[in-house]
Amino acid sequence: MPITSAQTASWKNATSQFLELWSQSNFIEANRYAESAVNMARSQANQNPRALISSLNNLAEVRRVQGKQAQAQQLLQEARQMAQKHLDPDDPIQNTLTMNLARVYEAQGLYEEAEMLFKQLLNQENTDQEQQVEQLEKAARFQMTQGFPNKAQQLLEEAQALLDVQGNTSSATQARVLTALAELALQNGNNDTAQQTLSQVETLQSELNTQHPDKLETKKIKARALKNMGKSEEAYQLLKEILASQQATLGLTHESVGMTLKEIADHLADAADPKAENTYQEALNILEAQLGKDHPRYAQASLSYAEHLSRLNRHSEAETIQQQALTSLSHGEKAVDPESLWVNRTLFSLSKNLFAQGRTEEALQAADLASPNLQLKQNTDQLPTRIDFSLHKIHLLRSQHKHLEAKKLHAHLQQTTQDLFPTENPYSDELRHAEGTLLESEGLYAQAEEAYHEAFEQTPLKSGHHTFEHSERAMDIARTLEKQEKSTLAKDWRLKATAYQLEASGDPLLKSNPEDTGWSHLNAKKLKVGTTDPRYQRYHQILNLASKSLSISGQSKSFDRSIGSAGILFERALEIYEELVGPDDPELTLVLDNYAAFLHDIGKHSAAKRLEARSISILEGAHVRP
Question: Is the pLDDT confidence value at 607 over 70?
Fold first, then answer.
């Protein structure tokens, strides 16, 4: 039966409505018109197969963007079968369908199938330069998700060369190529290049709807650039805008929403905000529901959460997540290439966690597995990751008493970073700290202390907060001071280290009211010296820290460091209180009894009984009944 003009007009109207809604990022309504166009085209498929093929592709694109990848795959496979049967092999829509199916395979973690289609596209002769550029950009994106940024860079440079010799490529395609180049520049630590490229992208995307996925992707990369430049609050606000747009257009449980929540959690973690953990878990719950735990993208996202847990000394939880990520990335239907930087980053993350637990031999084994792809090279591909890995390797080699190897790697790394950053080396604090560890290993404690001091002073604040790095470096200073028998200075630095640790944990020292310890039974009586005495206020500040340290240990599953910190703080509080009231004042028994109770709680009964005996002795000497 011939197609009537009315039927053709209806189909064209539905398709036109779809394209308009698509451009507005109104995917729910766009889906409705795409379905309508498919139904109309199906009734006349024999007379006009191209209309059905085009409609199936449009509907598949909506489903892909909505995260319904299995449905998109089914629609595209049907469209490809029809196109191969009814259309010329050189028809441009053949490549469009192949490329879109490859993207759907990639989104599902079916990387082998996706790579086969991308190779098929790149190996064929194609006279349509616009489509060639688009294929190169999509293939580059695939390499980026696989963890091969150097391959992605080559493909994007080829796409850029094609753009340079032709003037009729759409602004949307140009913008996507430049966006990918900006992302790679950012990964390689080239913030200025990324910023300049993003400015070009924003000009090309000026006519796009503010909620268009391409525009949101550009904003997300801009947020990363702002974060790298130290403009954390601007970056955080931009990410919240992106999240609101994604939730409005894609729904509350879309994969893109999960990935944006993960980046927001990264910001919260850097700012020592206790909401970070819940935000990570919310993000991972969405990604698990949409992708599954065996999906490489879920594994990649979970690594950030693991590193956050590791910083909170919850090493066993972090290790479980890292091992699961390594399994997902290395085995099964959705495994990535073992040479991928994703696999090597996971090994690197696991190695750091094992090293933090003192399991140096296992840490070195994990690092050696990652070494071939993370060793510092002449090129700048993934430079920040490679430098971080080299710094970690120095500490591992030192811990294994391989001092000569460690010193050689340190010298090489120092020269490399100086060549790359001749005016201001962003790794100077970490290099100086690594130098301190090498000096300490050689018994040069005064020189090590000087290096640690310099590293501590250069360690950047994150969102105005001290970090775990500050805490660890303060402990390094304390340790070298102890080895030089400077015990008073060492105690002060240990106290600072504890304060920084608690601040980085998201629970900073309360300073507003020195009498409010947050732990009622530790409140001391008002003394004759007066509550405005600096020593009295300092005593209460230290008790605040002790109580907070215990609070953190109770919330986490790794008690050792928090309990140890509380012990140091109680000891210091006792010293200050003793100075305030004297060694034999009955009021000192308040601190002694509380300190003893703490020691009983952690199983140190002998030490607790000694404090209790001293308390009784003071009371008996003062003729005060216990």
Answer: yes
